[in-house]
Specification:
342 residues; alpha+beta; 17 strands; 23% helix; 27% strand; globular
């Protein structure tokens, strides 16, 4: 008589598939710079603000001299076009039906994960463009462009309006030293802008170099005070050290062999609000999902909205979009060090 035991293999097809825990992302999309900059609500067809140019008069005079010289600082308009950024998602009708069913908890979790992955991709794209965006093709005008002294930023020509120049510090190919960094923070930028930077963003290789150059035990920073409040860097294992009162933060998206100095009071992200009337975030919530726009450090207040574009045969199309731009109101209080070796 045959002895045929019941094994896991023989009943595998009859067992329901259950997935435990949340899906673990394998791609680093931490958005360090995006998390630390102040975010403000904007308005209008573009991002517009005014700045003062030098023009006031101060002079010595002799007793009884007549007044003949007059002047005042000028008002100059600065404008930036909005950057348009989005991520798109298409959900099949069968997947939606499975997500709504009580038996479809796994399907619901997977669908929500795809949505959240799109959010993190959008945040990571914004974070990268905050450094390298040129403003072309509806992109952000990033810090590599903002922290220059020989271009036009916000429609103001820096070659003629020298008061609008940022601190574009060329190392001439020399090896990076701690003296260079200290001079940037405590002297060069302070003298040019009247106030030094409180934040500096560097790629991991430069961060490690700064640690090795430190003439004492580096002062590691676990929390950073920013215009958006206190940020616990340990949440994402992001590291920071303090030099001359400036916090140097490691960011994977920071350009290689560059240091970007930021005065957080003069640098912000401005976004254009969108209507809630057509928002289709309930398109996900109707499947039982409770979702927020989160980059891994917390909710992103960028006015992002999810819109349902309509039906395409047996699927529904969604797009999550944002209109925003990087705003720097005092370039002389910011800058970058470049062209060095480590």
């Amino acid at each position: 008589m045959a002895d045929t035991p019941i094994t896991i293999t023989s009943i595998l097809s009859a067992l329901p598939q259950r997935f435990r825990g949340r899906t673990r992302a394998q791609i680093n999309r931490r958005s360090v710079l995006l998390r630390m900059l102040r975010i403000e609500r904007g308005e209008g067809k573009n991002l517009a603000f005014t700045v003062e140019s030098d023009g006031a008069i101060a002079e010595n005079f002799a007793d009884a001299d007549a007044v003949s010289n007059f002047g005042a600082d000028g008002e100059v308009a600065a404008t930036l076009a909005w950057a348009n950024i989005r991520t798109n998602l298409r959900v099949g009708d069968l997947a939606r039906a499975a997500a709504r069913s009580r038996e479809g908890d796994g399907a619901l979790r997977l669908l929500v994960q795809k949505y959240l992955s799109g959010v993190s991709k959008l945040a990571a794209t914004i974070n990268g463009q905050l450094y390298t965006g040129t403003g072309a093709s509806n992109s952000i005008i990033g810090m590599q462009t903002v922290h220059r002294d020989d271009n036009t930023y916000a429609t103001i020509d820096r070659t003629t309006s020298t008061w609008w120049q940022s601190n574009n510090i060329d190392s001439g190919g020399a090896a990076l030293t701690l003296a260079m960094v200290r001079a940037d923070v405590a002297e060069r930028i302070y003298v040019a802008g009247g106030e030094g930077p409180d934040l500096a963003f560097v790629p991991p290789a430069v961060f490690l170099k700064l640690i090795s150059l430190h003439d004492a035990v580096p002062r590691y920073v676990q929390q950073v005070e920013t215009p958006r409040g206190r940020i616990a860097l340990t949440e994402g294992r992001t590291q920071a050290i303090e030099i001359e009162g400036c916090t140097f933060v490691k960011d994977k998206d920071a350009p290689a062999l560059e240091i970007h100095y930021v005065n957080s009071e003069e640098t912000s992200i401005e976004y254009l609000p969108q209507s809630d009337e057509d928002s289709a975030l309930e398109g996900m919530r109707e499947m039982g999902a409770d979702v927020d726009l989160n980059d891994g450090y917390g909710v992103i207040p960028l006015g992002m909205k999810l819109y349902k574009l309509g039906k395409r045969s047996a699927s529904a199309d969604y797009t999550l979009q944002a209109f925003l731009q990087l705003k720097n109101t005092k370039p002389a209080a910011n800058g970058k060090r470049r062209n060095f070796t480590i």
